[in-house]
Amino acid sequence: MKFSFTDPREGQGRTVLVVDDEPEVGETVADYLRAEGYDPITCRHPQQAIECSEETLFNLAFLDIKLPDMSGFELATRLKRREPQSEIVFMTGYGTLDNAVQAIKTGAYDYLKKPFGINELRHCLTRYQERLSSREIKISDHRYFDLLQNVPLLVFELKSDFRLQFVNKGCFRILGYHPDEAMKNPDWFLDRIQPDDRERIIDLLGVAFKAGNLPFSTECRMRHKNGHTVHTIIKITPDSEGGEDQHGVKTLAGIIVDITDRVFLEQTLVQREKLKTLGAISAEVAHVIRNPLVSIGGFARRLKYKFPKLPEGNIILQESERLEKILYRITEYLKPVEVSYQTCSINGVLKDCVALLLPEMKRLNIACRMNPDPSLSAVPGDKDLLSQIFAALIQNAIGEMKPGGTLLIRTFESEENIHVEFRNQNLRSKARDTECYFMPFDKGDQKMGLPYSIRVLKNMGGLLSVSQEQNDMVFEVSHPKKILSVPDLDGLTENPADLFMPVSDTSPAAGPEATSLIE
Fold first, then answer.
1. Per-run averaged pLDDT (10 residues), the chain, 519 residues
2. Is residue 424 helix, strand or coil?
3. Could you tell me how far CA 395 lies from the centroid of its own chain?
4. Distance from the CA of 363 to the CA of which of 122, 142, 448, 485 falls in 20 to 30 A?
5. Partners of 249 in the beta sheet?
6. Where are the alpha helices (DSSP H) in 36-115?
7. Global pTM?
8. What CA–CA distance (Å, rounded) separates 413 from 480?
9. Radius of gyration of the chain (CA)
10. How far apart are the C-alpha atoms of 465 and 228, rounded to whole Å?
11. Strand pairing class (216-223; 516-518)
């Protein structure tokens, strides 16, 4: 992948091919082209377009991607095989990542997302006319510039010292930085990689630079400008045109794809299977223990009545009561959860929870810093259950942190979900195994503990994930923007992550950098 391009074709041909199986779209484009002095030929079927291309030379072609019997990409390949210098503009109502990447590979000049207006057509033709009117290489370098800037992924080129040589507008959509901000910071690329993943990515990049022809693709956690984690795939292709010597290539080009929602769905399915298994084990344990426990308790009471001074009787009774409490926690954990949906603001629910627990945090000298995304969408959810979940996470943080510790809470939004991140800093002791948070056997009588919170979120189609990042414990609540029931999850395809792959063309708000401090 290289971001410099060949010279535009010479000549001022005015014949334009328009191929779309929707007559109204084709005629709209053709009418505008006639008004601009072009000679459009419209076709509704790709085979008809191929026949026309054998008789007439086209400098420019507008092609719908979704056509009968043959895709627009295949048609473009066949047209360019006959006339390599012809320019292609793809038209589509399906603005997916795969379409955008395929358009680049096919050598598209431009990309119009349906429905488009006269202004988009005007700008498209203006760029085409500029290309034909100049032989300057700098004009040809912009051949795919607009396409690269507007595809729904981050496109970049990296120097051997890991500094950016190029980055497109996807930088803002995925990580919250404008391209000029990123280019000004020499260490921007490595700084965006989460510290726990940074050494691995540096090693992979180093090998790719030295090997010269060794591409790679890997998952990586990156840090958004607002501070939250973005799950991505980094795909690198060595740039052989950038020059190569005994030390390898000088530049690497690649793309970064946001897969946060895909990771969320995969984790949801895995957690759901864990909970199903744990529920079955817990039910079996409760059933097996209850009958012998009743017998042991009865025996201990008779023993105590017969020998009141015998200490063993009290010990047996105490242990029986302890087992009864464990069984009670198990049965409470297994009870079904009733969810009452209503439109609610996650930021509002979170703010109320923090205000409620603020006196306890002050008493224990725990600070709370919040960084909510003000543009967060309202979601269908159960306010009471969400309040209890957030309260349980805050109480858990209070119990795990030393006095003087800080709880960082931030909210952000992905394509399909609302996320709330709780970052516990200054822990009292070494963090325990994250799997322990799933277990309903811990001490504590709070009604809404973390195991129960996990079950409740699962019933709402959400997820509570736990991870350790350096010295911090990070809990992340992910709540779907639409109601996703358990039957919805049961009916997923063999590759359920595909449901979340389309990426919106709109750019999310960057959100405030500064945080409000509650102490």
1. 38 77 90 90 91 87 89 88 84 68 70 83 84 54 57 84 89 91 92 92 89 81 89 78 59 88 76 68 72 77 79 78 74 71 92 92 92 90 91 89 91 90 83 64 54 82 84 89 56 36 34 34
2. strand
3. 28
4. 448
5. 244
6. 46-55, 72-82, 97-106
7. 0.51
8. 10
9. 30
10. 14
11. unpaired
Residues 6+ away with beta carbon under 8 Å from 56: 15, 41
DSSP string, 363-385: HTT-EEEEE--TTPPPEEE-HHH
Sort 94 into a burial class: Cβ within 10 Å, 0-12 / 13-18 / 19+.
Answer: exposed
Task: Fill in the DSSP letter of residue 160.
Answer: T
Cα(248)–Cα(161) distance, rounded to whole angstroms? 13
Asked if 18 contacts 41 with a C-beta cutoff of 8 angstroms, the reply is: yes
For 257, the token pair is 């794809």
User: Which residue(s) pair with 407 in the sheet?
Assistant: 368, 424
Q: What angle do CA 317, 323, 324 make, to 5 degrees?
A: 85
Question: Phi then psi for 338, rounded to 5 degrees?
Answer: -95, 125
State the Cα–Cα distance between residues 369 and 164, nearest whole angstrom: 33
Helix, coil or strand: residue 277: helix
Q: Hunting for tokens 């020499």 — which residue is that?
A: 186
Beta bridge partners of 508: none
For residue 4, which amino acid is it? Answer: S
209: Cβ–Cβ under 8 A, 6 or more apart, which residues?
160, 238, 247, 248, 249, 252
- Please write the tens of the pLDDT for every residue from 213-270: 677 889 999 999 888 889 999 998 755 444 555 566 788 888 898 888 888 777 777 7
Is there a contact between 168 and 144 (Cβ–Cβ < 8 Å)? no
Tokens at 64, concatenated: 């719908």
- Give CATH superfamily name and number for 342-518: Histidine kinase-like ATPase, C-terminal domain (3.30.565.10)
End-to-end CA distance of the chain: 50
* Digit-coded pLDDT (tens) for 425-463: 888 776 566 666 666 555 444 445 787 788 888 888 888
Alpha-carbon distances of 367 from 135, 362, 419, rounded to whole Å: 62, 7, 21
Q: Which of 244, 242, 214, 219 is nearest to 229 (CA)?
A: 219
Question: In DSSP terms, which residues pair with 74 in a beta bridge?
Answer: none
CATH 3.40.50.2300 at 15-149, yes or no: yes
Dig out the tokens for 181 from the structure: 């901000």
Angle between helices 346-363 and 383-400 (to 10 degrees): 30
The length of the chain, given as a count of residues: 519
Please name the residue ranges forming H helices in 86-238.
97-106, 118-133, 137-140, 145-150, 170-175, 179-184, 188-192, 195-211
| Both structure tokens of 102 | 């395929």
Residue 487 buriedness (CB in 10 A; 0-12 / 13-18 / 19+): exposed
